[in-house]
Amino acid sequence: MKGYTKPVNKYRLRERAHPELLKDLLHARGVVGEENIEQFLTPDFQRDSHDPFLLPDMAQAVERIVLAKKREEHVGVWSDYDCDGVPGGVMLTEFLRAFGLKVTHYIPHRHKEGYGLNVGGIDALAAAGVTLMITVDLGTTNISEIAHARTKGIETIVTDHHIVHGELPQALVLNPKRPESKYPFDGLCGAGVAWKLVQAILVHNRPDDFAEGQEKWLLDLVGLATLSDMVPLRGENRMLAHYGLVVMRRARRPGLAALLNILRIKPGTLTEDDVGFMVAPRINAASRMDAPDAASKLLGCTSAEEARELARALNKINDERKGVVAATVKEVHKRLSGSAQAESPVIVMGSPAWRPGVLGLVANSLAESHGKPVCLWGREGGEVMRGSCRGVGDINIVEWMQAAGDVFDHFGGHAGSGGFSVNEEKIHELPERMAASYELLRAKGTAAPEVTLDREVDLAEVSHARRDLMRLAPFGEGNRKPLLVFPNVSIGTIKMFGKEQNHLELSLTRGDSRYSGVSFFSTVDSFSKPIIEGEKSDIVGHIETDWNGRPRLRVVDVI
Fold first, then answer.
1. Structure pTM?
2. Among 168, 172, 161, which Cα is nearest to 133's?
3. What domains appear along the chain, each with residue ranges and CATH number?
4. N or C: which end of the chain has fewer CB within 10 A?
5. With bands split at pLDDT 50, 70 and 90, how would you rate the model's confidence at 2?
6. How far apart are CA 222 and CA 190, in angstroms?
C-alpha cells in the first residue's frame, strides 16, 4: 500500500481479521466471542459491578462507619487534590452526609503540604473533633502519618488504588492492588474504590429515606474521575465511565452544568474528550494554582447562582495556569538559546521560582516542540525540589530516572512521564546525570516505537465508520481511539485558526467525499512530510465529531 514505509519507517497496518470495521477493531482490542463483544458494546450496571466485599477489609470498614453513625462521630474525608481525588472526595462526602454523618472534606495544599497525608492536616482534623478519617486516592504508603493519627484518637480507613510496596499502615486498607485481594479487577481509580465503599455500606444499611438506586446519581463524579485518571477503560471501569457520562449529560449537578455552559459544551452531547481536554484540566488547575478547595466547592455546590460564580472563578484560575505555563515555556526557550543545553539530547533545567505543579504541562509542551526528553524542577518548599519528566517515546522515563543513579530522593511514574524529588545539594548534578543516563539507554539500541494503524478506511466511509466507532466509546487507557489511515486523499485549502493562529485546518477530498481535517498546535511542517495544497497523501488520524455534530478527521500525521 502506498506510503506506509516512507518517509519514515514508523507505521504498520494491522492485519484485517474480519471484513467489517467494528469486528476488526474489537478483535484488535482482544474482544472476541459473542459474549465478550456483547459485554463490551453494552455496559451493564448490575452485570459489570463486582462484589465490593471481595476487597480486603471491606466488611470491617462498613462496620466501622455504621458504628460512627451510631456514635454520632465526626468523620474526615481526606482526598487527593487531582481530578480523581477531588470528585471522589466530593462523592464520598455527599454520600456520608446523606447517610447521616457529620463530615469534613479535607484537601491538602499541593505546594505547602504536598501529596498524601501530613501531620499538620491530621492535627487540624483532630482539633475539629474528627475521630474517623477516610482517605480517597491516597494513604496506602502513609504509615507514619496514620500512626500519628492514632495518637490523636483518629482511626483510619484507606480507599486507594496505588501500588502496594511492602508494609501496610495500621488502618483498614481498601485497595484492589493488595496482593491478597480477591477483587477480580485491580484497575479502579481512587474514586472508584471509594464508590465500592458506598455500594458496600448500602447492601445492609440503606437508610429509609435513601431510595433504591439513588446512589447512581453520584456516578457523574465517579465517571469524571475514571475518565480523568488514566486508568484502563475496560471491564468495570468502562461501565463506570459509560454511566458517568450518562449522568453528566443530565446536568443535574449545578457546578458541572455551569462549567459546561462557560465552556460552551452542550451537556447532552458531552464526550470523554470534553472531560479530558476541557473539564479535567480546570479541576486540576485549582491545586496547581494554590486554590485546592475551588474545584471541590464547584462540584459540591447546590445553588445555581453560586455555581456560576465558582465556574467563572475556576475558569479564571485555569487561564492563570495557562499564563504560568506559557511564561515558563518562554523562559526555558530563552535560557536554551545559545546555551550548551541547546545541543544536548535532553532538556534539563529548573528554578526555585518555578511551580512544580505546572512543570509536567511545561515539560510536555517542550518535549513536543523540541522532540527530546525533558526534565524540569522547581521548589516545593524548604530544601526539597520537585519536578517532572516527559518523553517523546524513544525511552522509558522511569528507566531514564533510574539510570541516573542516586541523584533523586524519590521518583516514579510511567513509560512516558514521571515525577521526582531531589535535595537542593544535588540539583546541580541533574543536567550531566540525566544526559549521561539518556545516552546509556540509547546505547542499548532502544528503537523508536512502531505505530500500529488499526485499519484503512476510504474517505467515503467516514460517516458510516463514525457510527461504528461511537459504539466503542468511551475511549481512553486500554481502549484507545482507533488510529486509521485514509489513503490517496487530496489536500485542498490549508488554513491556520485560533487566537494565536497555531492550529491547522485542512480541506480533504477523495472523489465526491469532502471532510474537514484539524490538527491542533501544528503547522504545515509538523508531519512526516510537509503538506502542500493540491497534493495527494495518505492521512493518519481519528474520526471525530466537530462542534456542530458533523464528522471530521483529527489529523495525526501525513505520510
1. 0.88
2. 172
3. 11-40+451-558 (2.40.50.460), 48-245 (3.90.1640.30), 249-324 (no CATH), 338-443 (3.10.310.30)
4. N
5. very low
6. 9
